[in-house]
Structure formats: structure tokens, C-alpha cells
Amino acid sequence: MKSRIFWGIVAPVAAIVTSLLLISGILLLKHTSPVDILKAMIDYGFSPRNIVAELNIASGYYIAGVAAAIGFKMMLFNIGIDGQYRLAVFFAAVVGGLFTLPPVLHVTLIILVGAIVGGLWGSIAGYLKVKRGISEVISNIMLNAIAAGLVAYLLQPTRLGEQAEGSNNLNTPIIAPSGQLPTIPFLGGQIHGFIIFTVFIGLAYWVLLNKSTFGFNLRATGLSFKAARAGGVNAPKMIFVTMALSGAIAGLTGMGTLLSETHSYSISFPSGYALTGLALALLGRNHPVGIAFAAYFWAFLDRSAGVLDLNGVPKEIITIMQGTIVLSIVVAYEIVKRINKQQEQKLVGSASATLKVSATTEGEASA
Amino acid sequence: MQNRNTKKKGLLAVVLAAGLAFSVVTATAPSASAATKITKIGVAFDLGGRDIPGFNQLAYFGARDYVKTHKGVKIQELQAALSDTDATREERLRLLATSGSNPIIAVGFTYASSLKIVAAEFPDVKFGIVDDSTVVLPNVQGIVFAEQEGSFLVGAAAALKSKTGNVGFIGGVQTPLIQKFEAGYAAGAKSVNKKIKVQVSYLSVFPDFSGFNDPAKGEEAARGMFDNGADVVYSAAGGSGAGAHKAALAMKKWSIGVDADEWAFPSNKAYKSVILTSMLKKVDVGVLAFINSIDKGTFKSGSVTFNLKNGGIGYSTSGGRVSSYKKKMDTLIAGIVKGKIKVPSKPAM
Amino acid sequence: MSAIVEIQGIEKKYPGVVANHNVNLAIKKGEIHAIIGENGAGKSTLMKILYGMVMPDSGTILVDGKKVIFKSPQDSIALGIGMVHQHFMLADNASVLENVILGSEPTSFGGVIQVDAARAKLIEITKNYGLDINPDQLVAELGVGERQRVEIAKVLYRGAQILILDEPTAVLVPQEVDELFRNLKDLTSHGLTIIFISHKLDEVLSIADDISVMRAGTTVASVIPSKTNKKELAELMVGRELPKRREVSTKPGLEKILEIKDATYVTPDHREILHGVSLEVHSGEILGVAGVEGNGQSELIEMIMGLVKASSGNVSIMGHDISDSSSREIRDSGVGYIPQDRQRDGLLMSAPLWENRILGHQATAPMANGFWLNKAAAKKDSERIVVDLDVRTPSINVMAAALSGGNQQKFIVGREMADKPSLLIAAQPTRGVDVGAQALIWNQLIEARLAGMAILLISADLDELFNLSDRLAVISGGKIVAVLDPDKTTPEQLGLAMTGEKIA
Q: Which residues from chain A sit within 8 angstroms of residue B121, using beta carbons?
């Protein structure tokens, strides 16, 4: 099945090329040289300092991507990543800021709180879907709004937040050094220590999904609810668990920033991870390695977009590019799927036509 | 004016190009520098960007006003995104610094922690940050405003105009900054009419910053307040304020603008008849003063507060709808400037 | 009579595969011409060529003696060729009339649909050809047979003179098949020509005027029904002698494997589907369940498999009450399950074959090793199934969807029997599969029975029930109305019992 991997790479490359062509067209209309712009982006985006920053951004994107991917495997569209992430990182920051603990314990506690809060929040949508038949898209959009409101309410200085003198920002109390994760010096910059966990999350996702019976039950339910049920899988339970798991992973999205950078949650914390995560899962085809490349690519685009403004090109062009990529990738994968299916049917057709028991080797059958 | 140690407030006055005077209120770590030849001014915007009326745009106007009188000076602008982390903002400032901008204006308090790092990296570059006074470095100036004072004035105007004894406040996004507007407004209204009812509504909560640019939501909120008996509404909600004007026009009520003189906006031409006044938060003046101080070598680190006293805050009289209250307003201004009237900066809980 | 459609030397190659090779056909006006062949013999490709969906590499198609080239179905429709697909393409929420005119609505100047004119035309068609449908009924309310008539009316409405029917009886119950055949005879008596694709030999022998047999992409014979028989046709199709059905003489064992006592099932919306059903299946016994579809068979199966809970009564397997057990526990206690809809319930269509081997067995050895999957075991046993059950596939890594229906079903049968379960629930095990696969699956079931397996066989195929069952239970209206001895029952008697009539 080498060809499947081959086509799996061709599709995203084709999508990126398509969007590059589109962007070049727009730039040419504006009488700007696409080559110069691309060169500026690459020069800037691949400068050592930016590579470090991109890795840090990509790490958060990656986790959101894995959270989305695990949902996709179940045919769930977890648009609730935003709310799960926000609530999780907020409570992780609050709990982390409450006390001082031995370093390893403190950090572990913060991470656990994030995963548990995200998981619980995600499981609400799972419960509503399984027990009440409510689309997870609808409930998650609602839950996102509720999570945002809840955090905004709790972050008031009279509640769990505080406001520094002379500042217009609100933040949670700073986490003591024991609850901070060291950074890793790299290319003259500092990489969030949490990136190691990110790699672990990707690895665990892959192993769990492909090597365990739990993963099989999950994938089977996603591929066909009815077949899984007939095959003895408690399919509704799997939907619930998957939604919770996706939420738990989403809950870790902001950990790198929290543990190694800000050490508190504030108004200026980033948002908008849901759509990015979903786009990356699509682009990376739900594969941990694919998502990793996609996440870095996305971070690179976000980052190097900054240089566009300086060149007199609105950086919205990057948003257009990202949108085109997602759109073309959906089309490209559909085309690849059809090509693969045709190829397989041809192989099967020839296996039947030769009227012999040619089961074991591909070579024999296609000869 | 180099190395002069100034501990007293209001000691230092600089005449601005615009002819307005301001005073350094808290110059915590005075350090002046020689005049710098300005070639590029960097502006890092907050969410919303330059093209939406509000403090981003005013900050840009401040830089633009400088460029108008100084041929050849360029403005480098960078936009914000929802997904920004502190690291992203840091890099934005760094990009401006490495590409030769000096001075650099960071618009919005969200830049505070990033600025601490970048300003230390580039000691020769001057940074100004709008709406924050927490960054204490020799090359950073906080440009902050006493929004509550201006809001107090328009609150008083609203109470004077109101026949129903019922006025409204619409905040864009519920943050401490916007709550300053609310607090001043409510206090101003109550100073005129103790029994006045002040309705309060925020259009969104962070991280949803759409409340600063959603006229439909603004209109809906204003209509709700008018239906509930209000006859004047003050919107501290950026672009959403246009919606409140629209509602006021439709329901024959009054609307109050924010930041700039909204009566004079070409886009508000249709609403001129209902815009009572505007609370003026002259970010452009603050930014221009900051740039000029570098140009002239009078830059001071620490924070500079713009208020009623130095004219960085005020209310607009365009359209003449509040001219009959001038006497009352002048009394209030004098009271605030002299410290007789204490304006709260946090809403009563 | 001269040929209305003539196909000469058609070739169609896909890279690596010859789908059609030297295909020759002559179809006479006004006849029912059957084309038979195993799944994958090239029937579908040929029909796609004739309907303009696929262009041949070489060869000629003559319609009315004139050479034609079809570039798209529009071309063939223009020449009066219409296709009735196996899977209906109807909008449920629209009326019969709306469905019929959909895509070729008669419009007046300005784009207003002339509904009255369309209705008149449709009524005329249904009257002329004896198609019993009501233009104003919602398609959602129609049964399978009626839907098929709507499809036929749709094609006639577009002026078709030559109708291609792709396995039209696959979805019908016996009574509906009779009705369809009457309709088809009516159509030919009006001068229309029918091309009838099938692999059901009985039907073909009873209705066709001419039969063409395809095998491995080519036409191997053209015969007249009166001069051939079922055995000869089957051998022409498969190209070899059919495996003979073993005579079963051993008596079933006495051990009760499955026992259902007075079970009732009421749906959440209070429809009573099963009423007081009691059944027993012993070791080494095949109990056939006969019945017109929709009389509670599906719910009976789902109840045994733990997919729905009995409202009252109980189900035990080998003496253990499983009424409250999960589907997982029931399977693990030694129950194999061949679902009636293999593509929906039996397979993960877009997963590779070897992963499909795991489905249903993911919790126990050898497919699972505690928490972990045993991929090697899955692959190894998939290879075994492919060899043992003659599953025609180039590899166990292809998607299940790529296989033909018969090969998918053989794989499922192999999987469900792999662990030698004590009880096998076999629902429609050979529906829609070709004779070769059918014989193979039957043999598997008989061998398993001899080895002592208890088998509950639910089928709509009377041949299958008579050939395999030790006893026949008849289900009607959610009740077991009779338990018959197949050796002492005629198909007519069974048919009567299925419709709920008492056997005299």
C-alpha cells in the first residue's frame, strides 16, 4: 500500500500549491511580486528566533489538532475545543496559583486539572448527543459561549482574578515557580518544556487508536455506528467517551503557554483554537505525523504573516491562503479517495476475473 | 531638560503641536534623552485594527499627524489576531524594532508583558504603550487616560438631557478598562440627579471581542434600553456605537459617542441629529505628544496620564446640543480638576 | 425478427483488468432478454456501456440497425434506452408524480411546471402498462414493489422503448416478484424491449425469452429457456461443476443451545413487534425462520444479539439467561452473527479486510491481547479466510467496499465461524450473492451443523430454507405461527403459512 502514502502526501501538497497560485494571482493583481513576498516570508519565518516561536505556537496548535482528529475519527465535529481549552487553562491556572507544591507534583496537578476540566466540559456535549440526540456542533457552540462567559465572570478581581495596579488587564494569581515548567534552550530561543508532552500526546494518540482494542472500538464506531453495534461495541458509550477524551486533550492546548510563558491566565490569552484544530486535523488527515507538519506549517504562516504588513501587503492574505488550503484539501482528499477506490476495484476485478484463488499476494493478482 | 529630577506632579508642561497642554502626572523614573531623528514610526495595533473607529484608529491618527508635518517619515503598522499569545505580540514588537522603527507604539494593554521583554532587548528604541502603566523601563512610556473623568461629564450631560430620569450605558467588552467608562458615567449622571436610573449592558465578554465592532448588537442593546425607559444612551463600544445612534434615530432618543467626536464622522452623517455629545479620549494627542517628546529630546519614561486637567480628556460640543449646559459642565470640570469631585474608576458592585 | 440492439465485439479495459472482452449480444424487439453471470462477470460494465455511462475501447453498438456512439446517458435516453437501477433513486418526501417528472419537468413559457399535463401523461402510462401506482401518494408511504414501479414509470415517462433492469428482484418478496413479472410481460406485449440482469436462475428461466450468459468479462453462451435447465445455466456461469449439496442425514443433538421463552418486544413508541415468541435451537440443528420481511425477524435477531431488550420473557444461551447481557457478553459467550445487511451491519466498508476480521471479536483472544489488538493474528486469520472461503481479493489490505457483495459475504461467514461458536445467527446469509458463493456458504453452514453448531437461519429465500433447515419456524405478525418439518411441507404450504393463513 505504498501508493496510499504517496497519495496521502500528494493531496496536501496539491492543496498548498493551489492556494499559492491563488495568492500569487491576487498579489499580481496588486502589482506585487509573489516571489519577493514568498522570499520575505521564508527569510523571516525561518530565522532561528522565529523557528523557536513557531515551534511553541505549533505545539498548542498540534494539541488542538489531535483533539479535533480524535473527534473526526468518531465522525464528531468538536467545535467546542475553544470552550474546553479556555475553561481548562483557566482552572488549571487558578488551581496552580493557589499554593506551592513540590515541583513535579505541582506541574502534574496543573496538567491534570486542565485535562479533567476539558474532559468534563467536552463530556457535556457527549452526554447531550448520546442521551438527547443533540448535534455536538450545536451544543458545543453553546458551551463555548457559556465557557467564555463563565471565565469572564470568574476572572473579576472580586472573584478568582486580580488586577495589577496601573494595568487594564485581569489575570489569575501567578503560579509559583514550583508550578512552572522549564524551557529548553534551542537556536538561541526558549522552547516550552511542554513540547515534550505534546510529542507524547501525539504518540499516545497513535498507539491508543491503532494498537488498542479501545481504539478499534472508537474507529469502528466512527466508521459505522451500526456495524460496530452489531459487532458488540457499546457504540453510544464510545461516542460519549470520545467526546470527553477530545475535550481532555483540548484542555491541554494552552498548557505550554501557561506553564512556560505567562504563568497565569489573563484577558490577553489567545483564542480561536477550535477552527485551527479542525483545519489541522483535516490537513494532516487525522494522522499524528500529518498534523505535526500541518501545525508547524500553520504556525509558520501565522508568524511570517507579520512581515507582510511591513511589505505593504495586508496579512489577511494569509487567512485567505489558509482558507483556500482547507477548502482544496477537502477536494484533493476526495479525489485521492476515488483514485484509491478505483485502483482497488481494478485489483479486485482482476482477482475475480482470473478465477483463481489468488488471495495472498498483490503482485500475482495484478500481473 | 535632561536629568532633571521631578517628583512633583504637574511640574512639567510641554506645548504640543496641536496647541494642547498636558502634564506628566507620574514620572516614576525620569530619564531624558537627546533628540532622536525619527525616520520610521512603528504601530502595533490591538484587535480591530486601524480601520475601525476607536483607539486603534486614534493612535494611528496621532502618528499620522506627526508624519503630516515631517516629510519622509514612514509608518510601519502590524495587525493583531485572536490567536495572539504574548510570544506573538513580543515578536510583533521585535519585528518593528529590527526593521528600524523608532519610536514604536503598542496599542492596548495586552502588549504589556511582551513589551517588558522587547523593550529591554532594544534599549535604544523608545516605546509607548497605550492604556497601560505597568511597564517600568527607561525607554518605555505608558500613555494612559482618565476615561472616567470624561465619562463623568457625558454622564452629567445625559442626566441633564434626560426627561425620564433613566439613562443607559453600553460597554463593548466587559473589561476593567471599559468598566472605568461605566463608573465615571454613572457617577456623573448621579451627580446631577441622585435618583437617576442607569441601565448597564455589555455586548460581549472576552475572548469574544466582537462587542467592539458589532453595530447590530449595539442597536439591539440600545433599543432594549430605550424600551425600558431610557432616553439617552452612552456607548463605549467602538464600532458598535453606530448601532446605538441608529436606534436613537429610529426611536427619537439621544446617543453619546466615545473616544473621538462621533458627530463629525462622515459615516455618522445620518445620525447627527441624535448625537448629544461624545466623550473624548484623545489617544491621538497622547501618541503625538509621545512622538514629539522623542523628536525634541524631552522623552520621559514612566507613565503619562491624560485627563481633564491637561486636556487629553474632554467632551465634544459639536452640534450644539449641550451648549445650554455649558455653565454646569464648566463647574463640574473645575471640581474634578481641583479634586473637589472624586470620580470613581470602578463601578459600584 | 431483427435485432433492436446489437452489440459486437465490445472491449473495455481498465489498467490491468479486462472488464469486457469480445462481448456480443443481439436483442430482439419486444423480448425479455436476460443477461446472467456471477458477480464481477462484467454484466454491470456492459450495461454501463449500453446506457452511456462508460465508453467502450472498441466494438460497435447498433440500435435499430444504425451504429451509435453513446457519450453520456443523455445520448442513450434520446434513443429510447432507459435504466431502472437496483438502488432506487427517489425522493421520499415528494409525491410519485413529482419524482417521475423530476429532472424532465414540462414547463410552459416562463418556467411554470405544467403539473396537470404531467399528471395526465403519467396516468396514461400507468393505465397503458398496468402499473398500479397513485401519482399523488408520497413515496415515503410506498413499499419496495411500488417504488420499483415508480422507477419504471419514470423511465417510461422519458420515452424509453428499451428498459434495462439491474437485478430488479433482489429487493422484492415473492408476491412482488410475481407482480413485477406481470408488469414486464405487459410492457413487452406493447412492443417494449426489456434487458433483465440477474443471477437468479429460476427467475430467468421463468420469464426470459432469451438468455445470454457472461463469464469473466465475455459472453460465453446464448440459450433459449425451453432448451436448457438450471444446472446447465449454473455451470455455464461458473465454468465448472457446482459443488454438490451434501445429503444431511444425521439427527440434531438434544442439547438446547438457544431458548427463547415467551418473549415480547414493544418499541419505545409503543408498537408491539414481537408477541410471545418461543423458540428452541439445539446443537447440530439448523432452525429456519421463514416469513415475509418486516414481520419481526429483525427485532428477533436484535433481541438475541442483545441490541434490543425484550420487554418481557427471556432469552437463554446454553442455559444462561442473557436477557440483560450486553451484545459484547453475548458474542463472547460463543455466538456468531451474520447480519442481514452486510454492508450496514457486518462490515466497516472503508476499513481494510484484515481490520474487518477483528470486528465483533475485538475483546477476546486471539484478536485481542488484553488491552492491545493482535494485528498479526488478525492478518493471519484473514489470509486463512480468503483461502478457505475463496474470497476473491488481491490482498487483505484492500477496503471491504472494494469487494463484490458475494466476496464480502464469504468473508463475513468466515469471520463469524472462525471461533467455532456454539450458536450462529445467520440472517439472509446468501442474499444477493451469486450461485458459486451461495453453494460455498451453504456448505459451510452444513458442515458447521454436522460439527454440532446450532444455527438459527433467517431467510427470505425458500430454496435456502428448504435445503438447509432441520425444522422451519414461520413468523407472521410478530408471532411464531407454525413450526414445520421441511420434508413434509410443500413450498405452497409454507407460502400460505407466511401470509398468516392456517395450514389445512
A: none
